[in-house]
Specification:
single chain, alpha/beta, Rossmann fold, 7-stranded parallel sheet, 9 helices, 7 strands, 15% strand
């Protein structure tokens, strides 16, 4: 297996951490970005204690210049990025008639515009080397919508539009571009939801439980594998049957 350099944005979060671990287990060198250095250093030390050596770099993916500097720093230290997982995301939930411009733009910038900001600096190298794997981490709510999440659902839906266009443009150059859309996963954010609300969510999931970050990471590892070369422009729903389409 060829060892690749992988960038997982938002890698210190619940799903991001699981993705970083899975890619490292597959033999890749994994980097992620941070905005809060002390928190990132603590995460890095915790991962090191578990046997994982991840590289961390400062970078705000909602900002174009910061994203360019992030990619440049990673490639200068580790080498060219061949695997990119656009995972960073935030929520600023409220009903649309109460939503402020700041709540809209913060979510769109971090969830959707970040895909441009980070992918643009790496795509030319992938095209030149004729190999690349790009995965967007979208959401079930980008597919079915959610009350109080017009900003989040719009951004997450836009991520797959980005995927399918980029996939068409680069398919002949050995670059695959895919989307993974998780349902409700037992991350800190979801577990912070009041228990009675969480119980209603679980009751609507046919498998009867929340997903795990490791299950999302498994899908990402599958899509970035060398043998997944004929899978591009796809969206993989991972939600326990909570939302089904075809």
């Amino acid at each position: 297996m060829t060892v690749r350099i992988a960038l997982v944005t938002g890698g210190t979060g619940g799903i991001g951490t699981a993705i970083c671990k899975r890619l490292a287990d597959a033999g890749h060198k994994v980097a992620t970005n941070y905005r809060d250095e002390s928190r990132a250093r603590a995460w890095q030390e915790k991962m090191r204690a578990e046997g994982y050596e991840f590289s961390i770099f400062p970078g705000d993916v909602s900002d174009t210049a910061s994203s360019q500097a992030l990619v440049a720093a990673i490639e200068a230290e580790l080498g060219p990025i061949d695997i990119l997982v656009n995972n960073a995301g935030i929520t600023r939930d409220t009903t649309f008639h109460r939503m402020t411009p700041e709540q809209w733009h913060e979510v769109v910038n971090t969830n959707l515009n970040a895909c441009f900001n980070v992918t643009r600096p790496v795509i030319e190298g992938m095209r030149a080397r004729k190999w690349g794997r790009i995965v967007q981490i979208s959401s079930i709510n980008g597919l079915k919508g959610q009350y109080g999440q017009a900003n989040y659902a719009a951004a997450k839906a836009g991520m797959h539009g980005f995927t399918i266009s980029l996939a068409r443009e680069n398919a002949k150059l050995g670059i695959t571009v895919n989307t993974v859309s998780p349902g409700y996963v037992g991350t800190d954010m979801v577990m912070a939801v009041p228990e009675e609300v969480r119980a209603k969510i679980v009751a609507d999931i046919p498998t009867g439980r929340l997903g795990t970050p490791a299950e999302i990471a498994y899908a990402v590892a599958f899509l970035v594998d060398e043998q997944a070369a004929w899978i591009t422009g796809s969206n993989l729903d991972i939600n326990g049957g909570h939302h089904m389409g075809w």
